[in-house]
Design goal:
The strands form seven sheets. An eight-stranded mixed β-sheet has the order 3-5-1-12-9-10-11-20, with helices on both faces. A five-stranded mixed β-sheet has the order 7-15-14-13-8, sandwiched between helices. Strands 16-27-28-29 form a four-stranded mixed β-sheet, sandwiched between helices. The termini are far apart. The chain contains 22 helices and 29 strands. Strand 10, helix 6 and strand 11 form a beta-alpha-beta unit. By secondary structure, it is an alpha+beta fold. Helix 6 crosses helix 7 and helix 14 runs parallel beside helix 15.
């Protein structure tokens, strides 16, 4: 067992502890970026002037009227940027437009006012003269216009074309599915100030402080050492604060530089939704071949990511989607082509799963659709195609521990009594004409590490004070996921001290430099490895001191729960006594730790290598009840078995599994982003820009029975204390909800189509409306044709129903 993964006796890791800020969260004592404004004097407030065109030339922007508004101090335009006018990593994303706007809602200029109302009034006074240009709003528009940007990678393994000739069954289809709004509780927020020496201090709600520092640095045209970024905590991130905060932080910093006063920039909910990127929607076309036994023989697919107006992180999102199209299934012959549609809407960005859910959804949709055509239940078809020992992925990475996938599957089938419940559901459905129930199982195999190998590094700073107390700063950010608690447990375990001995400091770029984003589910792996490394450096020095005091060899010394002992000594001392002795011996009591993930290699040009340290596995069984009259549904029960390795903090992990699942269910069944695709002046406007029009899950959508278990005997060699990442993989467990809805829809046509029901095409998100039309399609061929064409009027007429005007 590796030193990184081996646990000492009586460790703090593995214990269940609440979130380190839990009491602060529920009492309101926990501070967020915008809470800090009241601690500063003379703060200016920023508000944007947004584009009212999806795509247009900027003929002129008259800012003079804004200065006539009382309380307006400064109007910031592109001409005020002293450095590089770009807020992206691909240098294709001007922070402020010079002569062209690219999406409806894009900020054109920003107003700084003594208060927010003055800034709003100033923004309303600005006049903009546009020359409208042709715009592409949907991914279909972009495909038709061949509007693409960025790379167009291809995965090609085996001989897909030749394999189709040998296939007993071949199916083809298309599938387009929507993106998702992050809808974090705390919107984008930055607070910038400049001290007497010109040092810029930015408090920011960011998942990537180092990159925020980089963008602020090059926008202002100053070296990075003049910029310090701190993230106290975030009220949610979900990937939406990996790239998106940088431009807002830079704007606040620029305002502070120009005025000499602190600048606060916080987006309200409508501004946040209309200006920031979403999860990428995708269009897919596919062809799949099976053997006579129902084994996948070949897959040929094209994935088109809806990238929006600039690249942002679309390229790595696309490649991760391509690398996850196999999900948990072996595909011996495969060709996957990827491309990124360039559209006139928000630049889409990272979102929990980072493309993995989109790729996996394509495969799960395919299997759900073709299972009835193969005369198999979807559950059986999925189980037949699991990876087995010795097989590798489409990009040639061996799949380690595939038996864990089978173990999780079998455990769910057994503990959730799936077979008995399937019989009960069949009996219920036979006696119920208008309400049907169904259950579905889906697996998850998700790769853990950043696509770009260089990002797989983390840092930490550990300080031990003379009284024995410990202060830890690491490069990860806390967005509610419990990372800080896990780092406290790692530090306490490594040093051998009680948890109360260790405290976390806010994440800052002047304490831990050049860190990676807290993303890709790698926060614990990277920062935990770095914290452990720093603690081990300190402990290595301390054991020499302890050896002298205890009269024993240094290798025998151990520290457990604050008591220092050695095998060959009857004497013990306390941790505090050891630290005191070390101080007087002039022993360094601090260390900078570092960790990099070993064994990774990736060639993007040919899409081959081993980009992931390991795979996280999971299985979910979801049962739904669907009403045919309106397509409404209830999520009756969910059973999950998920692989988190040896959990560092089981209570935190269970919360992440539950939360990830519910967020995934929201994406797949409720959250319906709608852009105006008409030819009216409002073309390109996001219509779903508030909680009143964009539905996220609430308690009423949570499962009535929710059973979550962690997979036993799942130690992960080579990861910090044998644990596995848990942030993203559980989101994909929600595929089971969508597949259960598909099975319930099929149940309405089982009398006509036989035991396995019809092949059901289900929109995503599978909103009640979408479920209703899917039900109608299996009940009437006429309705099916009309619904498939999107003609709701014809479909309802065929059913003898009426459509409200």
């Amino acid at each position: 067992m590796s030193q990184l993964s081996q646990r000492p006796t009586d460790p703090i890791v593995g214990e269940s502890h609440h979130h380190e800020s839990a009491f602060g969260h529920v009492t309101g004592a926990a501070l967020y970026t915008d809470d800090l404004v009241g601690r500063l004097a003379g703060v200016l407030h920023a508000y944007p002037v947004q584009s009212t065109q999806a795509h247009a030339k900027l003929n002129s922007v008259d800012i003079a009227p804004a200065y006539e508004v009382p309380g307006v101090i400064r109007v910031i335009t592109a001409a005020d940027i002293p450095g590089v006018n770009d807020q992206g990593v691909k240098h294709d994303e001007p922070m402020l437009p010079v002569d062209e706007v690219m999406f409806f809602g894009q900020p054109i200029v920003w107003i700084l006012g003594n208060d927010l109302e003055a800034a709003k009034a100033g923004a309303a006074a600005v006049t903009v003269d546009y020359e409208p240009l042709p715009s592409l709003v949907s991914v279909r528009d972009a495909i038709e216009a061949e509007s693409f940007h960025g790379i167009q990678p291809v995965i090609d393994k085996g001989d897909a074309t030749g394999a189709f000739a040998d296939a007993a069954h071949v199916f083809e289809g298309e599938f387009e599915f929507a993106g998702q709004e992050h809808f974090y509780l705390e919107t984008q927020a930055s607070l910038a100030q400049v001290d007497e020496s010109g040092q810029i201090f930015v408090q920011c709600s960011t998942q990537h402080p180092t990159e925020t520092q980089d963008i602020v640095s090059h926008v202002l045209g100053v070296p990075a050492h003049e910029v310090t970024v701190q993230c106290l905590r975030m009220g949610g991130g979900f990937g939406g604060k990996e790239m998106q905060p940088h431009g807002y932080a830079a704007l606040a910093a620029l305002g502070a530089k120009l005025t000499g006063r602190p600048v606060r920039l916080r987006l309200n909910r409508t501004l946040d939704i209309t200006m920031t990127g979403k999860r990428h929607g995708f269009h897919s076309s596919w062809k799949i071949g099976f053997t006579a036994e129902g084994k996948i023989l070949a897959l040929d697919a094209t994935l088109t990511a809806d990238g929006g107006w600039s690249l942002d992180l679309s390229e790595p999102v696309l490649t991760r989607a391509m690398c996850h199209i196999d999900n948990a299934y072996w595909v011996p012959n495969i060709r996957v082509a990827g491309r990124i549609a360039k559209c006139n809407k928000t630049s889409q960005t990272a979102f929990r799963g980072f493309g993995g859910p989109q790729g996996m959804l394509v495969m799960e949709d395919i299997l759900g659709r073709v299972a009835p055509k193969l005369g198999l239940s979807a559950r059986e078809l999925r189980r037949r195609n699991f990876y087995s020992a010795g097989q590798d992925t489409p990009y040639y990475q061996p799949v380690r521990h595939p038996e864990r996938m089978e173990a999780a599957w079998d455990q769910v089938v057994s503990t959730a009594e799936v077979e008995a419940r399937e019989a009960e559901i069949d009996q219920f459905n036979a006696g119920s004409e208008n309400v049907k129930r169904a259950i579905a199982l889906t697996p998850v195999k998700f790769g853990i590490s950043f696509n770009l190998t260089a990002f797989n590094q983390g840092g930490a700073l550990v300080l031990v004070y003379k009284d024995g107390s410990v202060l830890v700063t690491h490069g990860g950010t806390e967005m509610g996921q419990g990372l800080h608690m896990k780092m406290l447990q790692v530090a306490a375990t490594t040093l051998g001290v009680p948890l109360s001995t260790v405290r976390l400091a806010p994440t800052r770029t002047d304490k831990v430099p050049n860190t990676s984003a807290t993303a890709a589910s790698s926060g614990t792996d990277l920062n935990g490895g770095a914290v452990k490394d720093a603690c081990e450096q300190i402990l290595g020095r301390l054991t020499q001191v302890a050896a002298g005091i205890l009269g024993a060899p240094a290798h025998e010394v151990s520290v457990t729960r604050g008591i220092v002992s050695a095998l060959s000594s009857k004497k013990t001392i306390t941790w505090e006594e050891l630290i005191n002795a070390a101080y007087f011996q002039r022993i360094q009591l601090s260390a900078s730790g570092f960790y990099r993930t070993e064994g990774l290699h990736w060639d993007l040009s040919i899409m081959t290598g081993e980009p992931f340290k390991y795979f996280a596995y999971g299985v979910a069984a979801s049962e739904v009840e669907v009403n045919r009259f309106d397509g409404s549904y209830r999520l009756r029960r969910v059973d999950i078995v998920h692989d988190v390795g040896d959990s560092l903090s089981p209570l935190i992990d269970l919360g992440q599994i539950e939360g990830g699942f519910v967020q995934g269910a929201g994406w797949l069944t409720l959250e319906d982003l709608r852009w105006d695709e008409s030819d009216k002046p409002s073309r390109g406007r996001l219509a779903t820009q508030a909680a009143s029009t964009y539905k996220i899950p609430s308690f009423s959508e949570a499962p009535e029975v929710f059973n979550v278990s962690l997979l036993d005997k799942a130690h992960e060699e080579g990861a910090v204390y044998g644990s596995k990442a848990v942030g993203e993989p559980p989101l994909m467990l929600a595929f089971s909800v969508r597949e259960a809805l598909r099975n319930a829809v099929a149940a309405f046509g089982s009398e006509t189509f036989g035991a396995h029901g019809p092949s059901v095409e289900l929109a995503s998100p599978a909103t009640p409306e979408a479920v209703f039309w899917a039900i109608e399609s299996v009940r009437s061929p006429v309705i099916s044709d009309a619904a498939a064409s999107g003609d709701a009027v014809a479909a309802t007429a065929a059913e003898g129903l009426s459509v409200p005007s």
